[in-house]
């Protein structure tokens, strides 16, 4: 909402208030001021008269002038084509500060120049605010007889000394998009008297009318029309033109200007039709029209079913609430008109306006909602102004379809409830005073105060808490004390999944991984190349772009993208992870994605180098699971048969827990990485819901065996496809409770080993919880294990 | 008798000049069974009965002082040897250390965690909800009925007639109100991702994070809201921070407030960060609208409550001096490296 302070001062005495003070008060009362713009600016301006004007000897367009400013005659060089002797002009004296800079005494091509003759544009006035006959379009402004040499109040006299506040109005206060309500609001904010023009009932005149008004759409509940058979087109008065210009509205003629002015003042978009274009004297609002229609701006718009159209005799005459029609507009020779003031459904107007890309002042106001009595107020004001400014006569009575949706009502609030909700101690006098400042009728009954709500606040003020907000808003609130809620003690805690996330983040960041946040919305490619998608991807009805069309069904491609970005920017050894929800038609899942590239451990000083590989990744997954209370005994590892398109078929695996797929991990498939110019990338994606829904093992203190353990090694030559897990299982089976631990500590293939074979070294730790093991006990079981391994795996001892 | 003194001086001189090898030879020369001291004992036979003990005492003293000198010399030599060895092991303390690789928590994670922990400490729980949400919870139950401008297709990501990517974590609050309506009081914070149809630029992101808070009980006041928010702001920014309330509008609260905090850069004096005002807008809040309580089946005559919502990106940007919101979604490890603690 653009708020002209000049216009506001028609209604409120702003004497003694600086712009900053006004803005500060508005901000404290709930109106944010986006910008403060002076319509024009310039210091040291004076009216001058050009006494002499001769051509500059050294230029083909400059003039030398002698300009009288009353106190002295100045030599000023001027380049304007309309510069001539006898003109009254705006002179910026030396030292004047204009939007373009400071005016200094100077020499222009050898000729002294002590000031500048100005166009209005040089005073900061934009072209669209200039009067159509202004010389400032391509020359200096020519002042009329109102101005006398030596006058300094030029901008004020021209009507350009206004300051415009760009006020952002919250959605609950669409009434403040009108000057009428804004003036009332400002009166309350500044606590000053408001004097508004009186025009209620002005439209209650006119002869009987046979005009027919109907609506066949439920999205037009109220419509007023009034025929004015005689009007005179002329120029609007200066005060109206100034107010319109200050609001950025172009002045056309008195009729068009009145319709715009009434909209700005009352908030109700009005439309005037040329009476000649509606010989049938009939208007029907429809929402079933389909086809193209040429609006006032001369552009053809494609109208669809649902769009509200004003029609006459079945033919469209305007796009309801958005823009009038080219075929019915006011022309230079208009002699009579029809006033339209209607209420259209805000959601429908917004839909149509957005679809057509036609954002007008009218559409903006309908979209945000009108006050219920706006149509009546607007027609009253329009009739009032048409009589005053367009010699309007031969009115017909106002024709009405439907009726305004407003019955006077009251809100009852108690002082006790107010103070209990806010935590302050307002007195009844303070509460009632705020209601009075707002111009509301208010009476007191015991502890209650009862407020009558005027129509322009009906959409916002409905319940006692709304009244409380008005009181809070318009009184000093900085003295509100700070307390904490007095309530039963509760224990704050995290849920299972929240704890799991924290544990994983702690582990992975300490292992050199960076926590990342990626976009949920992804391209089709990310969906087609998803890992373990839980279902079909969900698509946006109106996406921002193809790159953000779907909700991702796995995290892998987001992390690959982040990895590529980092490698492209010369970051090395990049380990990233993300914890995020994914969605599909099957619902929600929470996932962990981990990606590794380059060295997992790299230390140049210590010459340490551990490349990321399958085993590093597997180890990290084990660490995460055991830290969460899920030991590897409960988690089984399987060959990856789920996804060999994205994973290396022989360097990937699937983890299962409690019969559910928990995680897929391993090296990514070189074919898949090729298009991204990546190599040797390791990736894991884990379904965290499986962990969140499982009960972790209880923590139990280990019992330390007081008898010593004995360690023995075995080296075997084995076929290369024998699995470590099978070896360890066999050892455990034969050794039973005497085997405390067994592990593979070396695997070797290469020189001195036959093709297809591998050398495997195992370590077995024996113990007995009952007694100290004797050498023969150990030898006994160790021999049994060895011979079992040799026969079971067709192995040779090395 | 004279040769006893000579022997002593000779021995002490030799010990003083010895190295570790000759010291051992001297020990044999003087102190062994066939050594020089033992040799003196042989002279005893020629002495009278009263001279014997006196001479014996003198030889013993001589033996002790030579032995002591040898021990001292030995310690001196060992100590010198150790010093030489330690010196040879000298490290360059300025040489780069072993670098255990550490990653970082994402700044958005850090802020979320900080807010969660502040409120867990005050007995709040952390509630969550689906990001793909029904408009019932995202809008309708938040007192934003159909036709409200905020529900517009232009502003949100609908996936069908009734579901959308939630545009506000208010949706979580609405779920908590419904599920806990019979288990009052409610004290929760609700962090999560939200989505709006904005083009990404330095200050806008189509995806961002919010954390809302909700308290429902008896006699909850605006003053309680102020106290709670003041505590949060002081924990997160500065222990001297002040807050002020400005009237605002949200469909689900009445009255509603924007909350400003004193600028954490200048302490309220005025600087470029706060555009000279000394205040920074930090969050939105208000008293839960009676319609919202009633829709959830809570008696709005008996119970009241407050709600607030803070942008996690906004806090992160203010707290860490981030100027482009897209930096939070690029995941450049040079940027992420700055959040080691």
Give an overview in words.
Chain A starts with a strand and ends with a strand. Chain A is an alpha+beta fold and 798 residues long. In chain A, strand 4 and strand 5 form a beta hairpin. In chain A, helix 13 packs across helix 16 and helix 19 packs across helix 20. Chain A is elongated, with a radius of gyration of 42 Å. In chain A, strands 28-31-32-38-37-36-35 form a seven-stranded mixed beta sheet, with helices on both faces. Chain A has a five-stranded antiparallel beta sheet with strand order 5-4-3-6-11, with no helix packed on it. A five-stranded mixed beta sheet of chain A has the order 13-16-19-20-21, with no helix packed on it. Chain A has 20 helices and 42 strands. Chain A has six domains: 2-39 and 163-190, Phenylalanyl-tRNA Synthetase, Chain B, domain 1 (2-Layer Sandwich); 45-158, OB fold (Dihydrolipoamide Acetyltransferase, E2P), CATH 2.40.50; 212-402, Phenylalanyl-trna Synthetase, Chain B, domain 3 (Phenylalanyl-tRNA Synthetase, Chain B, domain 3), CATH 3.50.40.10; 409-474, Phenylalanyl-tRNA Synthetase, Chain B, domain 1 (2-Layer Sandwich); 496-692, BirA Bifunctional Protein, domain 2 (2-Layer Sandwich), CATH 3.30.930.10; 710-797, Alpha-Beta Plaits. Chain B is of the alpha+beta class and 341 residues long. Chain B folds into two domains: 2-88; 107-339, BirA Bifunctional Protein, domain 2 (2-Layer Sandwich), CATH 3.30.930. Helices cover 41% and strands 20% of the residues of chain B. In chain B, the strands form two sheets. Chain B has a seven-stranded mixed beta sheet, with helices on both faces. In chain B, strands 2-4-3 form a three-stranded antiparallel beta sheet. In chain B, a hairpin with a 2-residue loop joins strand 7 (243-250) and strand 8 (253-262). In chain B, helix 1 (2-17) runs parallel beside helix 4, helix 2 (20-31) runs antiparallel to helix 4 (51-88) and helix 5 (107-120) packs across helix 10. The mean pLDDT of chain B is 91. At the A-B interface, helix 7, helix 10, helix 12, helix 13 and strand 28 of A face helix 5, strand 1, strand 3, strand 5 and strand 6 of B.
């Amino acid at each position: 909402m653009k708020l002209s302070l000049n216009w506001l001062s028609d209604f409120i005495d702003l004497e003694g208030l600086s712009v900053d003070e006004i803005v500060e008060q508005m901000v404290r009362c709930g109106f944010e001021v986006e910008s403060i713009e002076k319509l024009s600016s310039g210091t040291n301006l004076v009216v001058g008269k050009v006494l002499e004007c001769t051509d500059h000897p050294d230029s083909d367009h400059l003039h030398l002038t002698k300009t009288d400013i009353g106190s002295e005659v100045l030599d000023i060089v001027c380049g304007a084509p309309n510069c001539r002797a006898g003109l009254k002009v705006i002179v910026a004296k030396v030292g004047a500060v204009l939007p373009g800079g400071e005016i200094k005494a100077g020499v222009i091509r050898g000729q002294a120049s002590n000031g500048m003759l100005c166009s209005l544009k040089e005073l900061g006035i934009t072209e669209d605010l200039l009067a159509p006959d202004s010389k400032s379009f391509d020359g200096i402004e020519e002042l009329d007889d109102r101005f006398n040499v030596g006058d300094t109040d030029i901008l004020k006299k021209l009507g350009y000394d206004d300051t415009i506040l760009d006020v952002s109005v919250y959605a609950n206060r669409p009434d403040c998009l009108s000057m009428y309500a804004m003036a009332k609001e400002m009166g309350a904010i500044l606590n000053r008297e408001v004097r508004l023009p009186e025009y209620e009932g002005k439209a209650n005149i006119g002869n009987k009318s046979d005009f027919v008004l109907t609506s066949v759409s439920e999205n037009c509940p109220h419509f007023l029309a009034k025929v004015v058979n005689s009007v005179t087109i002329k120029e609007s008065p200066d005060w109206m033109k100034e107010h319109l210009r200050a609001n950025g509205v172009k002045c056309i003629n008195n009729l068009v200007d009145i319709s715009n002015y009434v909209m700005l003042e009352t908030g109700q978009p009005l439309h005037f039709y040329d009476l000649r274009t509606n010989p049938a004297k009939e208007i029907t609002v429809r929402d079933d029209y389909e086809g193209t229609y040429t609006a006032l701006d001369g552009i053809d718009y494609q109208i669809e079913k649902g769009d509200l159209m004003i029609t006459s005799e079945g033919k469209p005459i305007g796009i309801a609430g958005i823009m009038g029609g080219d075929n019915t507009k006011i022309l230079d020779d208009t002699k009579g008109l029809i006033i339209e003031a209607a209420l259209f459904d805000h959601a429908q107007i917004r839909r149509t306006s957005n679809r057509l890309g036609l954002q007008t002042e009218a559409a903006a106001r309908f979209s945000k909602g009108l006050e219920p009595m706006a149509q009546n107020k607007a027609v009253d004001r329009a009739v009032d102004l048409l009589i005053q400014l367009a010699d309007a006569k031969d009115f017909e009575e106002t024709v009405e379809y439907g009726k305004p949706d407003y019955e006077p009502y009251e809100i009852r609030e108690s002082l006790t409830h107010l103070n209990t909700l806010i935590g302050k101690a307002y007195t009844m006098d303070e509460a009632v005073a705020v209601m009075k400042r707002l111009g509301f009728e208010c009476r007191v009954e015991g502890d209650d105060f009862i407020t009558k709500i005027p129509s322009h606040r009906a959409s916002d003020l409905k319940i006692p808490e709304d009244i409380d907000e008005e009181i809070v808003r318009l009184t000093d609130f900085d003295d509100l004390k700070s307390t904490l809620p007095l309530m039963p003690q509760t224990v704050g805690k995290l849920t299972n999944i929240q704890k799991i996330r924290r544990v994983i983040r702690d582990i992975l960041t300490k292992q050199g991984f960076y926590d990342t946040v990626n976009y949920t919305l992804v391209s089709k490619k990310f969906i087609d190349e998803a890992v373990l998608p839980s279902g079909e991807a969900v698509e946006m009805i109106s996406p921002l772009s193809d790159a953000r069309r779907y909700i991702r069904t796995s995290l892998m491609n987001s992390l690959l993208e982040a990895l590529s970005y980092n490698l492209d920017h010369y970051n090395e050894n990049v380990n990233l992870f993300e914890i995020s929800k994914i969605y599909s038609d099957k619902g929600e899942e929470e996932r962990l994605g981990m990606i590794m590239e380059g060295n997992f451990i790299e230390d140049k000083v210590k010459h340490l180098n551990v490349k990321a590989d399958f085993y590093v990744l597997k180890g990290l997954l084990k660490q995460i699971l055991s830290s969460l209370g899920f030991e590897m005994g409960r988690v089984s590892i399987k060959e990856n048969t789920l996804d060999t398109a994205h994973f290396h078929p022989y360097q990937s695996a699937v983890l299962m827990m409690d019969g559910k797929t928990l995680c897929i991990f391993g090296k990514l498939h070189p074919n898949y990485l090729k298009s991204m110019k990546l190599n040797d990338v390791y990736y894991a994606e884990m379904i965290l819901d499986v962990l969140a829904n499982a009960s972790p093992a209880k923590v139990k203190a280990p019992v330390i065996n007081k008898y010593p353990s004995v360690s023995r090694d075995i080296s075997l030559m084995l076929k290369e496809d024998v699995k470590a897990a099978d070896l360890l299982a066999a050892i455990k089976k034969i050794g039973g409770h005497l085997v405390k631990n067994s592990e593979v500590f070396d695997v070797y293939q290469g020189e001195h080993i036959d093709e297809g074979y591998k050398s495997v070294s195992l370590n077995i730790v024996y113990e007995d919880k009952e007694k100290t093991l004797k050498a023969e006990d150990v030898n006994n079981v160790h021999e049994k294990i060895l011979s079992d391994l040799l026969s079971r795996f067709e192995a040779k001892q090395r | 008798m004279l040769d006893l003194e000579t022997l002593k001086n000779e021995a002490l001189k030799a010990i003083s000049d010895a190295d570790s090898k000759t010291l051992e030879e001297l020990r044999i020369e003087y102190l062994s069974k066939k050594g020089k001291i033992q040799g003196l004992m042989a002279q005893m036979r020629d002495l009278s009965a009263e001279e014997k003990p006196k001479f014996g005492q003198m030889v013993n003293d001589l033996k002790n002082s030579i032995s002591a000198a040898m021990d001292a010399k030995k310690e001196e030599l060992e100590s010198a040897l150790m010093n030489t060895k330690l010196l040879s092991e000298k490290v360059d303390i300025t040489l780069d250390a072993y670098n255990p690789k550490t990653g970082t928590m994402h700044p958005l994670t850090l802020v979320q965690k900080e807010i969660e922990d502040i409120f867990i400490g005050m007995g709040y729980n952390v509630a969550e909800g689906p990001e793909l949400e029904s408009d019932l919870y995202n809008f309708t139950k938040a007192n934003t009925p159909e036709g409200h401008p905020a529900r517009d297709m232009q502003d949100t990501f609908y996936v069908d007639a009734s579901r959308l990517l939630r545009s506000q974590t208010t949706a979580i609050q609405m779920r908590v109100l419904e599920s806990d309506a019979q288990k009052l009081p409610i004290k929760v914070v609700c962090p999560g991702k939200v989505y709006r149809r904005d083009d990404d630029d330095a200050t806008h992101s189509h995806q961002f994070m919010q954390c809302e808070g909700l308290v429902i009980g008896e006699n909850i006041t605006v003053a309680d809201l102020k106290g709670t928010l003041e505590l949060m702001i002081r924990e997160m920014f500065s222990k001297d921070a002040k807050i002020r309330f400005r009237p605002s509008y949200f469909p689900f609260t009445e009255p509603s407030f924007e909350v400003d905090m004193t600028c954490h850069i200048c302490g309220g004096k005025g600087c470029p960060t706060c555009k000279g005002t000394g205040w920074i807008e930090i969050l939105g809040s208000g008293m839960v609208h009676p319609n919202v309580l009633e829709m959830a089946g809570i008696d709005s005559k008996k119970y009241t409550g407050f709600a607030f919502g803070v942008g996690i990106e906004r806090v992160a940007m203010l707290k860490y001096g981030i100027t482009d919101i897209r930096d939070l979604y690029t995941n450049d490890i040079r940027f992420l490296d700055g959040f080691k603690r």
